[in-house]
Design goal:
The chain is mainly alpha-helical. The chain has 2 domains: about 1-35; about 45-160, Four Helix Bundle (Hemerythrin (Met), subunit A) (Up-down Bundle). Helix content is about 80%, strand content about 0%. The protein is built from 5 helices and no strands. The protein has helices at about 5-35, 45-70, 75-100, 105-130, 135-160. α2 (about 45-70) packs antiparallel against α5 and α3 runs antiparallel to α4. The longest helix has about 30 residues, at about 5-35. The N and C termini lie far apart (about 65 Å). The mean pLDDT is about 85.
């Protein structure tokens, strides 16, 4: 059969229709699957973790406020030891709670940092039996607890966006 323009156009349009039909089906299936899946990149919001983070942050604030109110030469470790024990137990509980939740790496990291600094500053206070820089350490904990609360707030916003 000799090559003609009519032959080229008719074979192109048949091939073109089949290709477009196949492409339409692929797009339809892809859109359907995308609509059916829910990809979660963050842990779900947990009101108990949010409230516990605020409560522990308040305990730490009170602890440091009491220390700062004392004259530096009166900031002995023995007077604060019971508070250190109680607050450390609460922080460890928060670390465990965050570790138990999947997709919660940011909150795990922040609560781990809080625990690390808490034990580090407690040990420094115990060794020196003084705490001249309590105000600066208090500021660090404020920033860390603000970050922990903000991390939970983001999860609440994600939950609200889905509803």
């Amino acid at each position: 059969m000799p090559y003609t323009f009519k032959h080229t156009v008719s074979s192109f349009s048949i091939w073109g229709r089949a290709r477009w039909r196949t492409l339409a089906w692929v797009l339809l299936v892809a859109c359907t699957l995308a609509g059916c899946t829910h990809m979660q990149l963050l842990a779900s919001y947990d009101d108990k973790t949010y409230e516990e983070t605020i409560r522990i942050g308040r305990e730490v604030d009170v602890h440091y406020a009491r220390l700062v109110e004392l004259a530096p030469e009166l900031r002995h470790y023995a007077a604060s030891a019971p508070q250190y024990v109680e607050i450390e137990a609460d922080i460890r509980s928060l670390v465990r709670r965050n570790a138990a939740r999947p997709l919660n790496e940011e909150s795990q990291k922040i609560s781990g940092q809080i625990l690390k600094f808490w034990t580090q500053y407690r040990d420094k206070h115990r060794e020196k039996d003084a705490y001249p820089d309590a105000r600066f350490d208090s500021d660090r904990f404020s920033r860390l607890f603000n970050a922990a609360v903000a991390a939970e707030e983001v999860k609440r916003l994600q939950t609200d966006d889905r509803n």
